[in-house]
Structure formats: C-alpha cells, structure tokens
Amino acid sequence: MGAMNGFMIEVDGTGVAVPDGSSLLTAVRAAGVELPSLCSDDRLSPAGSCRTCLVRAGGRIVAACVTPASSGMRVDTGSDDVVRLRRDAVEVIVSALPPRALADGGPGELAHVCRSLGIGPEAAQGAGGRGGDDSHPYVHLDRDLCIACGRCVRMCSEVQGTFALTLVGRGGDTVVAPGTGGPWIESDCVACGGCVDTCPTGAISQPGAARGLTSAFHPAEGRTRTTCGYCGVGCALDVVTRDGEVTAVLPARDGPVNRGHACVKGRFSHGFRTSPERLTRPLLRRDGVLEPAGWDEALAHVARGLRTAVDAGGPDSVAAISSARATNEENYLVQKFMRVVIGTNNVDNCSRLCHSPSAAGLTASFGLSGGTDTFDDVERADCLLVVGANPVEAHPVVGARLLRQVLRGARLVVADPRAVGLALHADVHLRPRPGTNVALFHGLAHVLLAEGLTDEEFLRERATGLPELTELLADYSPDRVADLTGVPAADLVAAARLYGGAGRPAIVYGLGVTEHLHGTDGVRSLSNLAVLRGAVGTDRGYGVNPLRGQNNVQGASDMGALPDLLPGYGKVTDAAVRSRAEDVWGVPVPARPGLRIPGMFAAARAGELRALWIVGEDVCATDPDTDQVARALDACPFVVCNELFLSETARHADVVLPAASWLEKDGTFVNFDRRFQRVRPAVPPPGQARTDFDILWAVAEAMGAGLGCPTPADALAECGRLAPVFAGLSHDRLDREGSVPWPCRSPHGPGEAKLYTERFATPDGRAHLAAAPYLPPGEQPDDDYPLVLVTGRRWAHYNSGSMTRRGGNLALDPVDFLDLHSDDAGRYGLRDGQDVTVESRHGRARLVVRVGEQTAPGQVFCSFHFPASGVNRLTSDVADTVTSCPEYKVTAVRVAAS
C-alpha cells in the first residue's frame, strides 16, 4: 500500500515509498543507493546535463535527476551496462580536467564520485591554462576545474536570486563567469557562498578553506552546529574547525529557516575572531588610561564600584544595558543580576532602539510581542506586503526566499521610500515620504473598507474597535493620503486591491515602520490591515511579521531585559507576576519600572546615575545623538563595558571586560519568527576572554551574592519556571528537535508556530483595531536643512561594523556612502565619489557621495557601519511616544563638499 501522498516503486528489487512529485534520483537515494549526479543539487531544479546519474527504468536508460518517478515503476541501477555508462560519463568529464583536479584525495564531490567508481587521478588528462580569478576576498575561481555543470548559475538565480553568474564559451571551453564581465569583485555577486557550496569540483572555492569542502562531503576534524550571530533570521550553520581555529562556516542543509543557504556575514565574516584588535585581557582605567589587569583585580574593582554606587545613591543609581548579541541565558542573567543582586529594574536592551514599537504595537493589537506566523507560512502567501524593510540586504536569506516566492507568482507590494531590493520586483512600489507611514496604512485601510475587501464575519466575531476606526478612516481618502505621503492615489488603490483581493496575504515589515516618533502607531495601523482582512490566526492569511534586526533582539526582550517587564513579558507592576518571580528567585522584586536607555543617559548627565554596565553594545556608535551619549558616559562615575574590541563606548569605560563572541558561546537565540535555537561554542574564546554568562556569575560572586543557575541550560530551565510561555523549552529538547517556537508551555507540546488560531492573547480574546490619527514626524526639512536623511544597513556590513569591518568585507564595502539622487547632486554641485560633510541640527558627519536613483529627490540614505564617519551624531533624540525608540528614519540635514 502506498504512503500518504505518495506511492511505491521498486529499486533494484526493493520496494520504496516516495512522495508525489519525486524524481527517480530521489527514489534511488531513498533506497540507499548512491548515484553520481554532478549537475544536481537538492536545492536546485534538475538539469540532466552531466548524464552521470543514468539508470534503467521502464526498459529505457534515463537520467534519474530529470525523470519523474511513477507508481509501480521498476528501476535498475546496478547492471553492468548501466554502471559502465555512468563511469564513462564521469571519465569523459574528468578527462578534460588537469591532473590536480583529483590529486591528494581531495574532499570535493567529483573526487568522491571518482573514488567510488574506481577512477584514479591518471584519468585527468587536461592541459589546463584557462586561468582564474582571485579578485574577490571570499570567492576564488579556478577555470581549469570548471565542468560547466551550471549548478553555481542555478544557485545564484534560483536560491539567491541575484543572477550574477552565467556560462560563457562553447563546447569544452564553456566555463562559469560573472554575468557583468570583468573581475568577480566588480560583479553583482553578494558573496552568499552558494556557488562555493554547490560547486562539485572546487572550481569555485573559498580562499583558505579546503577545496570542495561543502556541507555534504568529508567533514573536517571538527564540525559544530550553531546559530548565526548576525541578523535575526536565525540561520543554522556548521562551523568547521581545525586545531582550535575556524576554517569554514557552512550553511546547514537542514536548517529550519535557511535550508542550506547563508549570506556574506554568516558564511564568511568570521575573521574578526582572530583580529589583532580583539580584547583578550581585562582593562582598568588608571590615571585616565586603560591598562591590562588580571581577572581577580578586575572583578573586585567592578564589585567595589557597583557597591559604592548603591551605597551612595541606592539601587536605582545603577543601570545595565543588555544586548541582542548575547544569548537568551546571558540576557536572563543580566536582568536577574540587576533585580536580585542590585535591587533595581534599571535594565534595558537594544531592542529599545529598533523593535520596541513592535513589542508594544503587536501586544496591544494581538496580545503577544512576536510575529504572528512562521516564515514557512509567510512563504506560502499569494500576496506579500513588505513595508519599511530591505531584506535583500539586511536579511539576505529571507530576502532570497521572498524573491523566490515572487518569481513563482506571488503578488508583491513594497512600501519603502527607496527603490532597492524587492522593490525592483514589486507589482506596486509605494514610496511614502519618510515619517508618513500611519497615513499610508490608513489610506490602504480606507480602500479595503470602501471596496468591501474586509472579512465581516472575522471583524464581528474576533475583533473590536471597528466603529472608531471606520470613523477615523473617513478622513483618509486616497487623494488626501496622496497629499500627505506623496504616494499617487492610483498606486494606493492598486496596492490595497492586491492585498485585499488575495487569498492568503502576509505582511512583513522592518525598522522603516518602527524607528519613528509614532512607530508604535505605525505597527498598530499596519496590523489593522491584517485584522480587516481576517488574515491573522486563520487559514486566510499569514498575519503581521517583523524582521528582527539583530540575532537575538527577540530573545533579549523575551528574557525580561526590559525596565517594565519580567521574563515572558509579565509586568513588574503586576503583583501576581512579581510573586511568581519572587518564588523562583527567593528575593523581593522592585515594583516600580526602571529606566529605559534614553532615561539612563539623561540620569547620568543629571548626576543621578552612578554606575552603568553595558554588555556588548557600542552605544557611542549606534545610539542617536551620540555626542550626548558620550557626555552621559563621561558624566557617569563608574562605567563597565563587556566587549570584543576597544569600541568607542569602551574608550569611555572605567573597566573593559573581554567577552566571547557568538562562535565561542553556549546557549540559545530566538529568531524573528520566535524559534528558540541552540548556540554552541565551536572554538574557545581568545586569551582570557570569557562569556558574558561567566562574567556575570563572577561579578555576582565577587559581590558576595549568588545567581543560581550555574550553567546556561540551568538558566533557561529557571526562566521556564518563571515564565509559563517558555516552560516547555530546554537545551536537551532543542538538541533533539533543532528549533521550537514560543509560546511553548509544556515539554510535550510542540510550541505555537502560528498564533491566535482560537483566540487572541488580549484580555478579551479579540484583536484590537487601533484608531490613531496621523501625526507628522519629529523633524521637518527647511531652508537650512533641506534634505531628509534615512539611515539603515548595507548588505556587506552589520550594525556598528565591529565584526564585519575586521575582515574581507572591507573589500566589498569600504566606506560609508551617502546615497544622493542625481537631481540633488546637480542642485548642490556634488559628484559621485566626492567627500562631503553632512550636517543636521544635532551634529556633523563626513561621508562619500554615491549618486543614483535609489533615493527620491529630497531624500538621502546612509548606513552607520563606520563609527568614524559620525553618522549617529546627526540623528536626533526624538523618539517614539510610547516606547522611546529613536526616530532614525527622519533627520533633516544639509550636504556640502568637504
């Protein structure tokens, strides 16, 4: 009897159950038979070009990779004639290669196939001499090893969606080449490493790594499965090590989110680990100078400084800033240390600067602070509304998967001021003026209501607030919204009809929604669209899903590293929530909410904050109005900093503690769709560096206090006892299952991947529509500052660049550019590549102009990856009225030649 959604075939006399749509190659491998398939990769469409996977089926000899399996088919793989034909096909391919292609028992796929068929190095007879390309820091091309299988070209187009590679030449001279011509470094390649990973011969390889080393063949001496420490996608990676050093990082084929794919950061940007600038010993400030010290002295100094601050100003004179770079367990320990050892709720994390409006807005609308659906579900949507996000650069694996969905036929609406990434493939690209999101979302909602594109039953049974919203939306006709946002009314209507008419729409958004004066209103107004469509918690859509910026932004907040919330988002003002924490911790928990990050800096400048512990954040580079941040650090009597490098923030510290990186830690991260995944140490920290977990433990001991939970596994277990939404999570379970989403209330339950299928987590169990009017942004351009600056990320770097600037990424993106429209370049007499000074009402930065059409006239864009440029000296302290998230997306500036 056939398997569910499948059927039976016979392979070499053995019955095999295969799913519908399987190829013969899939069926043969399911039977445990190894076939060569040099042009095939499970991640790619079949090509059938190499003829190395020949089998006999139905009386004919066919290529297994391109032949569909059918019920009752009999397949023969082992007869002499079929084996001989496969061997002949491989020998023909090998004969054109130089002898070094098979020398020294190489680890590549071709070498493995030749060994299995008994083909020795002498079969390689080619003369070579076709040359190579070593212009790129991470990708090396050896044309003599290219067999023109096309896997790299298909990987680039089908998986990455960059279309950077092609095959050139004719016959035996056909080789892969960058599609733009010229050297690889000047091509459109985004260094995802997919071509390296799929190449069966080592023709495309990573310099310094073993040729042909992939996730499928010949593991090196050590291989550790972990989770990427860059953006919030949560890619599963295999870190290959030899003699205590990282030799390669490979995307895991069974990674639940990345599925064998990666980006330039996760795949290649690990050179920072061995940078000579890496901190390896504690530093203490003596006579104004940071000098090396031993751990015992440093720990005693930190303990003494914190005790002195508490004695002088009470527990609330101490504060801590935790980190999205840190593990869940480390974030849990930071907030526990502050509440249990110090006795204050003055703890916050960097989600304050990016996605705190998501937590506030999603909680108010639906009840929980995470995205509503898994990314697997989002990928099944027939219409994608992507708002204020450039995932192609900031979340490349997600960007690639979304683009694949669009290329398969999903409709795409992009709302973003810039013409970048997915916007180039959109059915409708809405380009609102920065700071007008709420008006734009209300305009879309107006059309949904006016044209009957809402789910009346859902609104009646599962939502509240419709009368108030309907009254508000009467003022947001397409024509009025066009005046407010600059988006043509016809485009607004077309976008609303696409989203409103879809069978399974999904919303994906980023920091372009949250980093505004009214960012929480933006999240809630965007959420309205999904509620109006009945596309949350139903089979009629895939909700509202934020793309988290850093690797553990979600987890840092989940663990309670927030001034008003305990682990699991229980309010510190709720006596029952505090009581549960007190039962676990054995000490009273302060009832008054603590300081947010901006409040910490203000208190320091006012002389009220006496000690500040900063864990893994370069606040002098990433926080807004950084001149004021630096003044706050200088005003605070005692500053401790855990860091990888002597960052600008660390230069202001009294104690700098050398910390371990994500490659050197044990614990868990939570990605953007609420998946807990394991983080495992692949290599030891350099020198005397320690994990933040160990540092926190040691400081508590030096203060004569105990934190309990001596291991990261114990910390997660304790968190589960305190927060019911995490009660079913443990290291052991994640080691078995790979990833588990929260809420997960039982060790035996699967976790809730899709939220709100029965009721919303609000007090009344309903989704809450928001009727917040549009209000203008915190800054407006004028004659003195005529341009609007938007900041964000570039594909090759990450945040302050402390890790990505210490490696080959500098060759890919060497400076902070200011993107300027050609009209503005002409207006101000600026040319491409020119050094310019950018001034705002708050500060000054120096950048390099890049003239183009990606930004609209009157708008400029830059990243903040190079702190020396001073970009965040420009940004203001204007912040979201609900959460204090800074308005990074709207700053009035002027530009002049330097």
Automatic annotation (TrEMBL):
Keywords: 2Fe-2S, 4Fe-4S, Iron, Iron-sulfur, Metal-binding, Quinone, Repeat, Ubiquinone
SUPFAM superfamilies reported for this sequence: 2Fe-2S ferredoxin-like (SSF54292), 4Fe-4S ferredoxins (SSF54862), ADC-like (SSF50692), Formate dehydrogenase/DMSO reductase, domains 1-3 (SSF53706)
Cofactor: [2Fe-2S] cluster
GO molecular function: 2 iron, 2 sulfur cluster binding; 4 iron, 4 sulfur cluster binding; formate dehydrogenase (NAD+) activity; metal ion binding; molybdopterin cofactor binding; NADH dehydrogenase (ubiquinone) activity; NADH dehydrogenase activity; quinone binding
One GO cellular component, as annotated: membrane
Keyword match Iron-sulfur: yes
Domain 2Fe-2S ferredoxin-type: 5-81
The keyword Ribosomal protein appears for this protein: no
Role played: NDH-1 shuttles electrons from NADH, via FMN and iron-sulfur (Fe-S) centers, to quinones in the respiratory chain. The immediate electron acceptor for the enzyme in this species is believed to be ubiquinone. Couples the redox reaction to proton translocation (for every two electrons transferred, four hydrogen ions are translocated across the cytoplasmic membrane), and thus conserves the redox energy in a proton gradient.
Protein name stated in the entry: Formate dehydrogenase subunit alpha
Naturally occurring in which organism (per UniProt): Streptomyces gancidicus BKS 13-15
